[in-house]
Each structure stands twice: as structure tokens, then as C-alpha cells.
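User: C-alpha cells for B box-type domain-containing protein, please.
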Amino acid sequence: MSNTFDELTKMDNTVQDAALYSGQVIAFDAYKDGKLVLTSYKPVSEEVYSEVLKQKKEVTNPDAASNTNDAQQTQISTDGKPLFGRYCEPCFRGNKESVTFSWCCDCEETLCSVCDEAHRINKVSMSHTAVAVAKISSTTPITVSSYVLCEAHPDKNVEFYCSKHSLLCCRTCIQTVHRTCDIVSIEDVSKKAKQSALFEKLCIDVKELFHDTGHLKARHNKNLDEINQQELVITSKIAELKVVFDKHFEKLKSKFENKMKEVKQKAVSNVKRNEATVDKLLFSLQTHSDNLQFVSAHGSNKHAFILANILKPEVEKKETELNELIALEQQIDIEFTTKVDALYLKNAIKILGTIEMLETAVELKNIRPSIAQSSKSKEEK
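Assistant: Done. Predicted C-alpha cells:
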């Protein structure tokens, strides 16, 4: 039967009623992407699930399953987000609500104080490591499943250790690749692992490597800041060069303009040096032309004869003057000549400076040889 939101609102507003409505079950898993999820074998509608999830967030009074002096509503926060879920996951699966007390590193789930006690005496889980969440200061809960699986056989857990190859093995490994090797149980060989020289050295190595890597990261960030500052300085210098160019160009422009005025004045003077003579000659010839036209139109032959004889030597003289002026005539121009063009400027800009990336070795603390290299060296010896 399909559940609807309307049907859900008719029920008592409790997580348990919603979970058991119409005989269906909702189980919650707080460590699958940090979300509560439905059981795959008895799904319910999204509306029911949403309402249950909403009520789950509003629950403030867990039931008696965790009402002990040890059980506290403990939450370790990282950046405002809870590190562990506040509810016991086994109790969730039993449709109960109880507050988180501990974290089982093997099961990778939260436990209330009651489940924690049962976990420690149960034959199957008594070897598990359960830690009170109040004592855990790490940023994330340890997830053993991320590294207990065999690399060669991902569906198997590692249970043995090969002393010859220094490798963790599963049952399939020891039956195939490591049949002739000296194999020991991890349970036996790991009894004092946390006090071993290898574990202690790893703790020191990781701490130092983390510090060195952080220092390297900080140096990268500082270098990036320096590059940004260098960009600003270079941009400022380029702007200063532009100001220098502009000022220099203005000086050159002013110099050229003054020179142009000087040359123009000289050119105009050269053009006008014979202008008075030409004007006088032009006026005289205009007068002679007017007289000849008047006599031709209105005078007698006598007037024409007399005028012709008077003007003949005068006209010959004017012709000589005109020929002399023509011989001295020149075309006067002013011209600007330069070798500076677009190509010249393009090439000139190249020699103003260069912008290059400089790579300089930085003296940093040398990283010690890795554990793998150290082990290999020992084997070679």
C-alpha cells in the first residue's frame, strides 16, 4: 500500500510510528555520505521518508536506551559540522533512539553506552576497538574498512603478514602467491604494534612530512603573493615608461612645431622675394593691354600707329624682365622627413626591456629517505 503525506499526518508525530506505518520499516545509516537512507528491502514513499527525516532532526528526548550517567549528547564539531552522528546506529536499526557514546573503529559506527557494553562482551565483537567519542580529537572518525581490504583481492580482508615480502595478505594470497613464505597471523604479530619502532617512526615521519609539506605549501602561497606584487611593480614601471615617452614625445613635438614655423617663414620669404617686381611688371603690362584694347576699339589708325611705336621698346623691355624672373623661378615646399615608422617603433619597444620568468633554486630542508628506501637498503646490505 502506498503511503501519502496526508496519511502520514494522521499518525502520531513520532519517528517510531512513521517507521512502522503500514508494516514497513525504515532503517537509518548515518555514515553513507552523511545521510539517513532507507532499507532497500522495504522502501517507503519519499513523502514519508522526508517527514521522518524532519522529525529525526527535531528529536530532543532520546529514550531510556541511553539514559545512563555515561551517555551524554556528545558532538565533536569540525567547521560547524558534527563529526559523529548523535544517535546510536544499532538502536536506529532497532527503531530506538539513543545518544552516541562511542565509536567502533572496526564496525565503523556509533554506539550508545548500552550497545558499547554489549559490544565489548559479545564474542564476535569483543576484539573490536571502541573509543569514547569525547576522547577522540581527530578531524574524522577512523575508517578501518578503507585499508583492511586486500589490494590483490578486494573482496577479502587482510588477515596475515608475509615476513619475506613485508606484505599484508588475505587467505587467497597465502594459498597462491605466498604458499612457501613465512606467514604469521596479524592478530599474533600486531599485539604490540603501537609500541613498535616502525609505528613510532611512522608517527614521527608523518608528522615531520606533514610539517615540511605545510611549509612547502606556505612557501608556494608566499611565492604566488610575490608574483602578484611583482606584476604590480612591472605594470607600474611600464606606466612610468609611458609617461616618459609621452613627455619626450611632447618635447619632440614642440621642437618640430617651432622648426616648422621657422622653415615655413623662410619658404614664404623665398616665394615672396620677387613678388614686388612681378606685381610691378603685371601692373605695367595690364596698363599696356588696356591701352591697346581701347585704341583697337575706339581709336583711329593714327592713334594705333603712335601707340605701337611707343610701346614696342617698352614691351621688349618687359619681356626681358619676365624672362629673367622666369629663370629665377623655383618651387618652394616644406617637408617632414623621419625614419620613425610603425616597424621602427615596434623594434624600438623590444629594446626597452624584457619580462621573463626566473627560476632560482631554493634551499629547503632535505627530505629523509623514505621507509621503503631504507628497507630496501637494509635488504641489499
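User: Anything notable?

Assistant: Residues 1-45, 55-83 have pLDDT under 50 and may be disordered.
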